[in-house]
């Protein structure tokens, strides 16, 4: 590693005390940069933070990697396929070196932390490898890489909460992510996150509220609070329920959501805030992972199925019609056919509205990698995954069909990918398609659901403004 540059790590400011911006917005332009994001909403928020840091360091953001002096891929390490995709992308990017021979390619985020300097062994054309706690100094690191000095910085810093920095750069649309918690202390046996993102730390409430107000000033109407286990948030005596209530009451915030909560830490105080604060949306993503108690125990999730079902009942009693999504993993170490059938039975009993379904893959550094055997054959994983997806597709279609005829409140986000309709989200977080030209992006309209596509609701705006009190927001 003798050729690698180490950028001096400045002291992280004490929580809640924004540091002076070390750069100057009017610095001469140093070059152009393009940031591409893979993975979760946390990565989207961090890409926005990186863009802001680089703009302040004198770089201009571009939308086309062919025009960039620096291309940064902000990556995910949750599944092997995601990492392979990123390696493939770096090879594709080499084509730009025909007309831009000095283009720097960098890998940021969880994959950088997971594979570290070995990324440069496999892909020597990658000049920058930076983990999720290194973005405060990303400008200096990019400068060094452009000087031909490869940089690897994957130090995790349990104090880094990016206080004083901004996650709004490059954000378009009325929905904005605000990170309130970083890292994870749960150490589920299958999960790479505690190793790639370090220990759990909560952003002080004052800093969270500063970020939320900044997002509202930048045009956001819906705030999504992010954390690896967002409801485990704790800062001094402030709980997640306290913080959620405070964010919901910020002027100009029409809607608040949060993701992803940890089932064990979902307490009555949080359910009460969800049920009583008008801006908090009736939707929650609650990862179950498996319907088998044996598998849940082996995963180290800290709950059994009965406890999870009881939580779902409490949520549905307090917030009638709440939209529930989940994560389901098939083929975890030692999963038998009986365990798999228990997952299908749990899905039938709970009837999630939507689910992210995936097959377990061994990530090499987790507790399961070290202690358990990845013994479910790939073809069995594929078959179980197909069964789970098929069952969930039916439940999702049924949930959407039940909404036909309802009046929904839609936050219009822009034009749908095919370009023939407007796309928005209702408070339950369903995608809603509206006729083109029937509403302004950024507005909140009431609409009647007329049908569904199997993945989205088809609706038509009704006369008159939304009755939601926050519709008067900017
Ligand atoms: S709670 Fe478990 S699955 Fe979620 S990030 Fe933490 S270790 Fe990973």
Helix-strand layout with pairing:
Blueprint: E1 31-37, H1 41-56, E2 59-61, E3 70-75, H2 80-93, E4 104-109, H3 110-115, H4 118-122, E5 126-130, H5 138-146, E6 151-153, E7 175-179, E8 181-182, H6 193-196, E9 201-202, H7 205-217, E10 222-226, E11 234-235, E12 238-239, H8 240-248, E13 255-259, H9 268-276, E14 283-285, H10 293-299, H11 305-318, E15 323-330, H12 337-350, E16 354-359, H13 367-371, H14 378-402, E17 407-415, E18 421-426, E19 431-435, E20 444-452, E21 457-461
Parallel strand pairs: 1-2, 1-3, 3-4, 4-5, 5-6, 7-10, 10-13, 14-15, 15-16, 19-21
Antiparallel strand pairs: 8-9, 11-12, 17-18, 17-20, 18-19, 20-21
Helix pairs in contact: 8-9, 12-14
List keywords for this structure.
single chain, 474 residues, alpha/beta, Rossmann fold, Transcription Regulator spoIIAA, 4 domains, 6-stranded parallel beta sheet, 5-stranded mixed beta barrel, 21 strands, disordered N terminus, binds iron/sulfur cluster
What can you see in these coordinates?
The chain folds into four domains: 123 residues, Rossmann fold; 121 residues, Transcription Regulator spoIIAA, CATH 3.30.750; 120 residues, 2-Layer Sandwich (Transcription Regulator spoIIAA), CATH 3.30.750; 66 residues, Nucleic acid-binding proteins (OB fold (Dihydrolipoamide Acetyltransferase, E2P), Beta Barrel), CATH 2.40.50. The N terminus and C terminus are likely disordered. It is α/β, with parallel strands linked by helices. A six-stranded parallel beta sheet has the order 2-1-3-4-5-6, sandwiched between helices. Strands 17-18-19-21-20 form a five-stranded mixed barrel. It has a three-stranded parallel beta sheet with strand order 7-10-13, with helices on both faces. 32% of the residues lie in helices and 22% in strands. The protein is globular. It contains 14 helices and 21 strands. Bound molecules: iron/sulfur cluster. Iron/sulfur cluster binds next to helix 6.
């Amino acid at each position: 590693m003798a050729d690698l540059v180490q950028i001096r790590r400045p002291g992280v400011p004490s929580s809640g005390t924004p540091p002076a911006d070390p750069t100057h917005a009017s610095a001469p332009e140093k070059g152009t940069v393009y940031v591409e994001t893979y993975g979760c909403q946390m990565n989207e928020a961090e890409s926005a933070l990186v863009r802001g840091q680089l703009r302040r360091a004198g770089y201009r953001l571009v939308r086309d990697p062919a025009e960039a002096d620096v291309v940064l891929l902000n990556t995910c390490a949750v599944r092997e396929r995601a990492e392979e995709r990123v390696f493939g992308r770096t090879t594709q990017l080499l084509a730009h070196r025909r007309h831009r021979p000095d283009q720097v390619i960098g890998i940021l985020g969880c994959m950088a932390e997971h594979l570290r300097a070995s990324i440069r062994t496999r892909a020597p054309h990658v000049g920058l490898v930076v983990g999720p706690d290194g973005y405060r100094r990303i400008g200096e690191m990019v400068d060094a890489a452009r000087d031909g000095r490869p940089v690897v910085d994957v130090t995790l810093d349990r104090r880094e909460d990016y206080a004083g920095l901004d996650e709004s750069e490059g954000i378009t649309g009325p929905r904005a992510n605000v990170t309130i918690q970083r890292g994870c202390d749960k150490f589920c046996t299958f999960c790479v996150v505690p190793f790639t993102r370090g220990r759990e730390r909560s952003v002080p409430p004052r800093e969270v509220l500063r970020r939320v107000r900044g997002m509202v000033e930048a045009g956001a109407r819906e705030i999504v609070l992010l954390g690896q286990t967002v409801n485990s948030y704790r800062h001094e005596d402030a709980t997640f329920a306290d913080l959620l209530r405070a964010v919901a009451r910020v002027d100009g915030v029409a809607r608040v959501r949060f993701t992803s909560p940890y089932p064990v830490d979902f307490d009555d105080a949080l359910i009460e805030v969800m049920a009583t604060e008008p801006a908090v949306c009736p939707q929650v993503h609650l990862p179950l992972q498996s319907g088998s108690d044996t598998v849940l125990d082996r995963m180290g999730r800290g709950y059994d199925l009965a406890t999870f079902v009881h939580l779902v009942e409490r949520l549905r009693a307090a917030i009638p019609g709440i939209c529930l999504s989940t994560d389901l993993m098939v083929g975890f170490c030692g999963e038998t056919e009986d365990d798999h059938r228990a997952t299908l039975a749990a899905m039938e009993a709970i009837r999630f509205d939507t689910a992210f379904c995936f097959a377990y893959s061994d990530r090499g550094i987790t507790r399961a990698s070290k202690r358990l055997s990845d013994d479910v054959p790939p073809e069995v994983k594929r078959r179980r995954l197909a069964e789970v997806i098929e069952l969930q597709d039916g439940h999702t279609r049924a949930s959407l069909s039940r909404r036909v005829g309802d009046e929904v409140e839609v936050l219009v986000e822009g034009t749908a990918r095919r370009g023939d309709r407007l796309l928005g989200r209702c408070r339950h977080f369903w995608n809603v398609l509206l006729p083109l030209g029937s509403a302004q992006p950024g507005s909140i309209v009431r609409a009647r659901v007329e049908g569904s596509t199997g993945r989205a609701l088809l609706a038509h705006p009704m006369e008159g403004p939304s009755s939601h009190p926050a519709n008067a927001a900017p």
